[in-house]
Structure prediction request, 322 residues.
Amino acid sequence: MPKQNKKVAVDRRFLPLLTDISALLVGAQSDAIYEAVDQSLEMVGDFFGASAVGLGTWSDSGEILGTLRAWGAKPVGDYLAALHPGREAASEILRKGYVTWNCLEDLEGLPQFQEHVSQVNVKAGSIWMYRHFASQQEHLAIGKADPAPWPEDMIEYQAAVGTVLYNALYRRRAEAETEQSQRLQAVISDVTAKMVCVRNDSMDARINDALEKIGRTLDADLCVFLLSNNPNTDIYEVSHEWFVDAVGGPNFDDVSLADNYPWLSEHLKKRKRICFADSGDFAPEAPAEVELFERTGIQTMVLEPFQAADGRCGYLGLASVD
Prediction:
């Protein structure tokens, strides 16, 4: 009976919390949603007596890929610098949908994860998975610096809060994508208009200007223009390149793709979209491509093919260090 009364008391406190968070997020407009999410995370932390609350992403191999939003005294970098949680913890969350612990001894079956939380001083905690996609898991994580038992229905509470928080972030993401698409359409119209009557001696400058506008509109850090000047061959060269300071450069000035990046050159011959999410997407026989990613800090890249009216083929490439 005492446990049941305690549970009812927690329920009565939790429902107003969920109502307040929902109202806060629904009322937030545009970029204010991030401030509202941060405020919500603090409210969740206060409710559970936590030292840290975060929305983050793991790979299925148990590596922390990034944090969407976080609240707590400890810098996010401390979690990223610690030993990563490990494949066993990621598999456990994928199987059950969550993992929770009241003390470090509860994690003896997950030794690498136990060491991870020990390094970041999270003696008790809970991680609930919101969704799994593309070999990645999105979580709501709550941690305490001291061992302490969680409420009986911890996962149910966490799932409800996590769903509200992630739905708010995805709403803002959808709005941002719509806004970005509108900006891109305006850029395309502007580039098209300026290319109609451009002189040959101004062509390079106009293309470089177009790459910069496209790159900045799509939040890219590198934008390259690949072209095969002979419609009867599949040998591509980077004719133009725009980059931000984050990736340095130029990276492809006087570079022969066929000689320097033969593995990539073979893929370009297929004239299909090419996507790389990280250096692990490259085959063992692509050391030069891996070195390029590691040297420039590029995390993702997409190469989109096109064919000109005169038959020549090419690619527009975008890359990001984020």
The CA atoms of residues 105 and 114 lie 8 Å apart. The first strand starts at residue 52 and ends at 59. The mean pLDDT is 86.
